[in-house]
Amino acid sequence: MSPYVAPGAITRVAVVGAGAIGAAWATLATARGLDVAVADPAPDAEERLRSTVDRQREQLPPRETGGRTGDLTLVRDVAEAVRDADLVIEAGPERLDVKREIFAAADAAARPDVLLTSSSSGLTPSSFQDACTHHPERVLVAHPFNPPHLVPLIEIVGGSRTDAAAVDAAMATFAHLGKHPIRINAELPGHVTNRLQAALWREAYDLVARGVVTVADVDTAIASGPGLRWALYGPFATQHLSGGPGGIGHVLEHLGPPMLDWWADLGQPELTPELCRTIAAQTDDAMAGQDLDEVTRRRDEALQALLALKAASGIDAPADTHPAAGPAAGSAAGPGPGSAAGQGGSHA
């Protein structure tokens, strides 16, 4: 039997940080009938939080808003927020010093059967869990994707001192909250999905730097091409479908050798001030005349429609929540960089 609070027994969630990610977590949890206490010391935190949660709650599908709506409160102190919580979600900025302070305070105040999770987009749990002197074994990363109240993916990463039961409990808990968790079996800066994105961005930046294409061309190439397929199935399944009866084995046999040449020719750009200015200027040109709030609203509406279509079509395969074979959940590749509280880090 798990030593941690069972998913169905969770009634109160503590969120640390009322920024974009923390507010989205509050939206999702309250929409599912859970009471949420958000800790943030900023003077305008409560006004921003309630405005965001009210707006985002309208975007959620009926299945997540059909029952009781949980209570939402804002407090200034981490210990006060976590004291009665059944689950703790840290959603502060990516600063290791503040991250360590938050987890030390949460560890001292939260019950020992409560998971302490971080939404960090790139920091490894080993880099801050040693700040917890009581129960570091229940500390892990649960990294969502923006906007987290709509995008179901979440990456679960244990640190060098995280026990396997905590990882199992996190997989089950976030699946219960409607997320699609994947288990990351080694600590890496950026986890997995941000690393995959970074690989694409690296080549995209290099192509723009060389003048091969513009920023707008790159966006069109992905959004009107492979991005459409990737939104339905991932890169391996997409390759498998491309291979016809022979599947991915046929693709690797025929496209594998030339792909090695492509890999060898991929760029390794330096993010120079000149390249940053070029990318920013071209992006500004491509988005000129568009209201970014309106673009975001249309994006979120399209995300909702796509998720509903995938569910109706049966193209919806969350990872199972059972223990995975391979490296132990608590094994780590080593500590990484650091994190903090308030506005929240980058969740691309």
Structural notes for this entry:
With 348 residues, this protein is of the alpha/beta class. The C terminus is likely disordered. An eight-stranded mixed beta sheet has the order 3-2-1-4-5-6-7-8, sandwiched between helices. The two termini are 36 Å apart. It is globular, with a radius of gyration of 21 Å. The protein folds into two domains: 178 residues, NAD(P)-binding Rossmann-like Domain (Rossmann fold), CATH 3.40.50.720; 120 residues, N-(1-d-carboxylethyl)-l-norvaline Dehydrogenase, domain 2 (Orthogonal Bundle). It contains 14 helices and eight strands. Helix 1 crosses helix 2 and helix 11 crosses helix 12. It comes from Arsenicicoccus bolidensis. This is 3-hydroxyacyl-CoA dehydrogenase NAD-binding domain-containing protein. Pathway: Lipid metabolism; butanoate metabolism.
